């Protein structure tokens, strides 16, 4: 039996649909030598949380959900000196953030500037760094490129649109409703196609806009449903970046399909771009600079009390949301 004080957290003991999400008591974590203990104010909700809940990305159980958050440092691990202090307002990427307290490695913690609220801080990192690494590392978007962003009004999608526009690209987005299309346009998409009834209109529009050449790059977070269309609309020597499974995982691919146009295909995850503290610091500094310079802004869809976590997952999975969902602890 642990003698640690109890805290509240969303901990799963099996994989399944959102009905398994319960707010329970667990022992308060103790920071390891390289960790800080954060009293969480807000936790970001991401699609990956739904994969970890459902078992698409299986976890050893029991497991506290959540991959990012913001709050105040309340305790330092024994090796943490200089960079962080008790009382610092921080945001972080790390497991276990659907909880009142989380012990997180200093590797991926960032101090928040005074002008960034804790609410905004919890919305920044996971989707912001994902978007920034997509357009800078997975494929270096250049001025004049034709770029296709699937789910353009989603959390990551809105950011990719803004960043591509900032980098001078021509941005085509896909969304499932007119309201989402309007939002994508306000966030940098030059053209938006509704893909809810199939992909013929998308293929036609890309052909029309690019003189039948196709786009230089597709950023595809939707996965199973869009993958074939992504291969169709990319140009010869173009790039398809698959980085999500919102409609289900992409089935195994016969690589001979790439030979038709010498397509580059990547399946990326943010975590492989931030494996060292130096990588995390460099990328998060660039992201905070973009925010400070008003080059990107983060649209918060809704803040849910942590007790409404089931509703947050249901809303995200049923395509009802745009931008960022947060849980308030
Ligand atoms: P979003 O806000 O983008 O929500 C998902 C969107 O996908 C929906 O709003 C919907 O937009 C679209 N969609 C299309 N088909 C479906 C479907 N069958 N079910 C549900 N949604 C569908 O979520 P996030 O911004 O949190 O994440 C976007 C994607 O990026 C996810 O797939 C996530 O896994 C991935 N991701 C990957 C990372 C990585 O490191 N590889 C890191 C972060 C996110 P519409 O209604 O317009 O079709």
UniProtKB/TrEMBL annotation:
Q: Which SUPFAM superfamilies match?
A: GroES-like, NAD(P)-binding Rossmann-fold domains
Per UniProt, what is one Pfam family of this protein?
ADH_N
Q: Which Gene3D superfamilies match?
A: Medium-chain alcohol dehydrogenases, catalytic domain, NAD(P)-binding Rossmann-like Domain
Gene Ontology MF terms: mRNA 3'-UTR AU-rich region binding; NADPH binding; quinone reductase (NADPH) activity; zinc ion binding
PROSITE patterns cross-referenced by the UniProt entry: QOR_ZETA_CRYSTAL
| Residues of the Enoyl reductase (ER) domain | 16-327
Q: Indicate what this protein is called per its UniProt record.
A: Probable quinone oxidoreductase
Supply the source organism for this entry.
Modicella reniformis
Give the taxonomic lineage as stored in the record.
Eukaryota, Fungi, Fungi incertae sedis, Mucoromycota, Mortierellomycotina
């Amino acid at each position: 039996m642990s003698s640690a004080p109890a805290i509240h957290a969303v901990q799963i003991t099996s994989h399944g649909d959102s009905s398994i999400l319960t707010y329970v008591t667990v022992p308060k974590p103790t920071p390891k030598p390289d960790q800080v203990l954060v009293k969480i104010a807000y936790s970001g909700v991401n699609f990956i949380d739904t994969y970890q809940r459902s078992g698409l990305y299986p976890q050893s159980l029991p497991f506290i959900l959540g991959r990012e958050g913001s709050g105040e440092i309340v305790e330092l691990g024994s090796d943490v000196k200089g960079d962080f202090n008790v009382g610092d307002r921080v945001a972080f990427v790390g497991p276990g953030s659907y909880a009142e307290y989380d012990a997180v490695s200093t590797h991926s913690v960032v101090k928040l500037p005074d002008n960034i609220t804790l609410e905004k801080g919890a919305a920044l990192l996971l989707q912001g760094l994902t978007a920034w690494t997509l357009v800078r590392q997975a494929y270096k978007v250049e001025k004049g490129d034709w770029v296709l962003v699937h789910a353009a009004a989603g959390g990551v999608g809105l950011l990719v649109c803004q960043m591509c526009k900032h980098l001078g690209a021509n941005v085509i987005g896909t969304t499932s409703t007119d309201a989402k299309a309007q939002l994508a346009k306000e966030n940098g998409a030059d053209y938006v196609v509704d893909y809810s009834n199939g992909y013929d209109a998308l293929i036609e529009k890309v052909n029309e806009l690019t003189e039948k050449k196709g786009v230089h790059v597709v950023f595809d977070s939707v996965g199973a449903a869009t993958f074939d269309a992504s291969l169709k609309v990319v140009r010869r020597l173009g790039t398809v970046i698959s980085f999500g499974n919102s409609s289900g995982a992409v089935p195994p691919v016969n690589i001979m399909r790439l030979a038709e146009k010498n397509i580059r295909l990547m399946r990326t995850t943010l975590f492989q771009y931030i494996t060292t503290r130096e990588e995390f610091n460099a990328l998060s500094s660039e992201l905070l600079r973009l925010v400070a310079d008003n080059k990107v802004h983060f649209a918060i869809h809704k803040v849910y009390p942590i007790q409404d976590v089931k509703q947050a997952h249901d809303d995200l999975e049923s395509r009802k949301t745009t931008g960022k969902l947060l849980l308030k602890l």
